[in-house]
Amino acid sequence: MEAQFLTPVARPQIVADALTITCDPEDRCGRMSLLIRDGRIADIASDSTALRVEHDDVEVFDAHGFLVVPAFANAHFHPESLLFEDIVRSVPYGLWKLDPVFQKRMERIMDASFLESLKTVYTVSAMHHLRAGVLTVGHIVPPLTLDELVPFLDQERALHLRVRTVLRTWEQIAHGKELKSTGNHIAVSIGEDTDYTVYSLDNLARSAHDLDVPICLHLGELKEEAEILRRNFKKGLLTILQDAKLLHPSTQIAHLNHGSPDDLKIVADAQMILSVCPSSAALKRTGYPLLRHLEQYRVPLCFGTDWGSGDLLDEMRFMQGLPFLFSNLPEYSSLELLKMATVHGAKALGFGEHTGSIERGKQADLVFFSLQPFHMEYVRENPSADDLARLVLARMHSSDIAQVMASGRTVFEQGRCLGIDEAAIVSQFRDLFVSLPGAAKRVEWESSRATIIPFMTPVPSKVTPEDGYEEGFTIMRPSTPVAAPASPSPTSVKSITPPEPTPPQPERKIHKPELSKNVRLNFGDDDDGSA
Question: Is 362 exposed, middle or buried (CB count within 10 Å of its CB: 0-12, 13-18, 19+)?
Fold first, then answer.
């Protein structure tokens, strides 16, 4: 069954009396009313009365029971990751390519016969993003030919997402002007760290300049790759790119897990926004020592979920919680985190003039959270923007999103992505997923057994930098069934005697606990409070 895409109508309307966080330069917030015309925010008023009188022919939507924020932006995401999550989750990233099942799946999705199925994957990815209030996405497209690529880009526009499409092959780059002329927002990928040469960097820089499009860098995710790059060029990561004239305010850098303070200074001097993927680093166990140095330069950040999930609320909460687990990591306010997920992400992807904040003239890309009475218990009478952002991070989840608007069109409402035959898409994806190499065809009884979470994590025989953040609890299964204890016989009960009292033990001196090797490898020693 083919998926059906319908275009919801964008009609003039007044969104009246919504509790609003604008994420604009003035950090305005509070009860606001928005006039929406032609998909854009035409006016903003603190009281809906004047708007209702002046525009009495416009439909009014009473939004008193909603908290409205700008739509989120996911700056770095791989849609095809939905096909691998079951086999790579919590597996160190450096081991993925060694897994034969991973290799077989990658060969499958790169096959020309898989093209229609890949469109289904991208549609499911779009549904995930719409449900999470994400309307702006940056991703690298597969190595498709021009004839194969154009239908992908047309489909994404039909799904109401604003997408920066990163071209990764010379054939795609050669047709960049044609793609750009048809309204596609494109960028040029510099490729994998280990493939950099002076010749390739020079040619790609020239191509991006000729096309007048930004450059996208996937850089420094693995420690080994970063060290290879430094060793080959005998320079720092960002110094290499700076010398190649690849760094501009529009340049997007994703990851940079294993960058240095000098790299951050170059990012700051070039006025770039760094796309960080903290939860992905935890799941891939790549480590993220760069986070310790962010406080020194306060480089503008935006979020990318990178792998598997498109939920920016989870990403914000994960970043907010890291300083409570590891010392010397920068603490960001709730409003700063919300701006990373909205206006900063939109700017990093080149959409900052059109979306990312609630301002006059910008597209009406809005997320409506349902407000319940208990949501407001900890919000003071005249809340600041940070108070309301704290409410979003502390109390709101994707399940609380009641409605999403894209350019004034309602694209998600009451748990449904409008204009998409969700049942057909989900059915296609399920059939596709179970056909993949290594996919579970059914749930076995053994896999449904309860797991055991021990109080102590087993000490690994060897800790490597790729272990990432601290592992925490490890889920283990019993190696042999545990038999229930036998009931005591009457005779054995009679033979039980009270145990002798244990003599008092001498008090032991308590030493200051030492940081685990895993933490020191990824975040440095902390004996003197320094990074």
Answer: buried
Share of the chain above pLDDT 70, in %: 81
pTM: 0.82
pLDDT over threshold 70, residue 494: no
> Which fold is adopted by the domain 8-69+359-414?
Urease, subunit C; domain 1 (2.30.40)
Does residue 314 contact residue 84 with C-beta atoms inside 8 Å?
Answer: no
Q: How many CA atoms lie within 13 A of 59 on its CB side?
A: 7
Q: Which residues pair with 416 in a beta bridge?
A: 413
The pLDDT of residue 476 is above 70:
no
Q: What is the pLDDT of residues 121-167, one digit of tens each?
A: 999 999 999 999 999 999 888 888 888 888 888 888 888 899 999 99
- Please compute Rg for the chain using Cα positions: 26
Task: Give the per-residue pLDDT at 27.
Answer: 96
φ/ψ bin of 17: left (φ > 0), alpha (ψ from -120 to 50), beta (otherwise): left
Considering the chain, tell me which residue range(s) the CATH 2.30.40.10 domain(s) occupy.
Answer: 8-69+359-414
What kind of architecture, by CATH, is found in domain 72-355? Alpha-Beta Barrel (3.20)
Short-list 326, 287, 318, CA closest to 463 = 287
410-433 burial, b at 16+ Cβ within 10 Å, e below that, comes to bbbeeeebbbbbbeebeebbeebb
Look up residue 123 and give its amino acid: T
Q: How far apart are CA 186 and CA 173, in angstroms?
A: 10
Q: Share the mean pLDDT of the chain.
A: 83
How many C-beta neighbours within 10 Å does residue 74 have?
31
pLDDT reading at 481 higher than 90: no
